[in-house]
Amino acid sequence: MEGPMKDSETPKRQGARTRAVHAGIRRSGYGEVSEALFLTQGFVYDSAEQAEQRFLKAGDDEFVYARYGNPTVRMFEERIAALEGAEDGFATASGMAAVNGALMSMLKAGDHVVSSRALFGSCLYILEEVLTRFGVEVSFVDGTDLGAWRAAIRPGTRAVFLESIANPTLEVIDLPAVAELARGVGATVIVDNVFATPVFSRALEQGADVVVYSATKHIDGQGRALGGVILGTRDFVRKTVEPYLKHTGGAMSPFNAWVMLKGLETMDLRVRAQAETAQALAEALEGDPRLARVLYPGLPSHPQHAVAARLMERGGTVLSVDVAGGQAAAFRFLNALDVVTISNNLGDAKSIATHPATTTHQRLPDDQKAALGITPGLVRLSVGLEDPADLLADLRAGLAAV
Ligand SMILES: *Cc1c(COP(=O)(O)O)cnc(C)c1O
């Protein structure tokens, strides 16, 4: 048997699974094993002087009001930050509160932003409808076209926004290359990293300044609670993001933070199993004559397969299929599914099928849908934790009904 590790042998940074289970824990005087749920909006002070002091400047383990911070929420922030390799994080009520908070807290009238066009519908709404109302100029580019980024990013560009893997067409963006262009003009790179997942992506190492997650997806991973998080340098999180969010009210509830903390403990196992099944399903379905396309970053046929292989360990937990025969055929496929449920979350233990053109991306005009590859036959499949054989049989039954 080997003896205990000597100090010189201790790893500088613990492995991701260890961090996901232990990082950020704050034990109360009871010494509880599992993270405590501090379901309290406020905190009492020993004296008026202490209250005054805490409002002036709350220390590391001092809290004032749950809209500003809460011990359970703080545990979640520290754990996900440790996992991502970020200096700090701010947890939000939802993924959209995180996207909105990251952008609104740092931008002002007159600023210029460059964004990829293939975005989750609500992200597009913030960039296209909200920011522009406050005098921010936004240029949209095809995220897979490096020349387009080069042409759009200019001196004075304040921020670059992108989804590292686009929803639902699964285009993969060459983050290091875009980040280098942004760095050249001093722009902040904000990455919505939901599809890449905290398990497979190394966005901060690859040039992102700020990483945003919808915790609703893989972090919870069991379809229970909404949440989000903004990760970045301590300076950005505490001096730019925190003042904006603590006064505008996008805070995560302590209960949801507790759900997300427990979700983080099993995320690595879940996401790896889901991605393995997604890869197997994509391979099994590719070439089926009833499908015009099978889109999955882990398939060699994916247009950015090489970029995906370079940037991420695996292709993720989501694949998209384009059912030949358009919307009617896609609906027949969806309605024949039994194990896979029709819904619109992703990253869940339960496999979920979505028809983006009529649901998540319904708002887009037809020409924009076409430009983004959101065809009438496109179905997004979020692969869950069921037996792979049952999922394949279910998808084959769906195809038989087409
Ligand atoms: C779901 C999602 C969001 C929004 O997250 P919510 O938690 O639903 O607010 C943002 N970006 C991407 C890429 C998403 O998939």
Task: Please give a quick description of this structure.
With 402 residues, this protein is of the alpha/beta class.
Essential attributes:
alpha/beta, binds pyridoxal-5'-phosphate, 402 residues, Aspartate Aminotransferase, domain 1, five-stranded mixed sheet, 14% strand
What does this structure look like?
- The protein has 402 residues and is α/β, with parallel strands linked by helices.
- The chain has a domain at 267-401: Aspartate Aminotransferase, domain 1, CATH 3.90.1150.10.
- The chain has helices at residues 16-22, 48-56, 71-84, 95-106, 121-130, 146-152, 175-185, 197-200, 234-248, 254-285, 305-311, 326-335, 366-372, 388-400, and strands at 88-92, 112-116, 137-141, 157-163, 188-192, 210-214, 228-232, 291-295, 318-323, 341-342, 352-354, 378-382.
- The strands form two sheets. A seven-stranded mixed sheet has the order 1-7-6-5-4-2-3, sandwiched between helices. It has a five-stranded mixed sheet with strand order 8-9-12-11-10.
- It starts with 15 loop residues before the first helix and ends with a helix.
- Pyridoxal-5'-phosphate binds next to helix 4 and helix 5.
- Pyridoxal-5'-phosphate (PLP) is lined by residues 94-96, 99, 120, 122-123, 163, 167, 192, 194, 214, 216-217, 226, 228.
Give the quaternary arrangement of the chains. single chain
The SS-based structural class is alpha/beta
Order of helices and strands: HHHEHEHEHEHEHEEHHEHEHEEHEH
User: Could you list the spans in which at least 5 consecutive residues all have pLDDT below 50?
Assistant: 1-10
Identify the overall geometry: globular
CATH architecture of one domain: Alpha-Beta Complex
| Helix content estimate | 25-40%
CATH C-level class of one domain is: Alpha Beta
Strand order of the largest sheet: 1-7-6-5-4-2-3
Bound molecules: pyridoxal-5'-phosphate
Please report the distance between the alpha carbons of the first and last residues: 60 Å
Q: What name goes with the CATH superfamily of one domain?
A: Aspartate Aminotransferase, domain 1
Main sheet: strands, sense, barrel: 7 strands, mixed
CATH topology term of one domain: Aspartate Aminotransferase, domain 1
Compute the number of helices. Answer: 14
Q: What is the rounded Rg?
A: 22 Å
Instruction: Tell me the β content.
Output: 5-15%
Give the tally of β-strands. 12
Mean pLDDT: 95
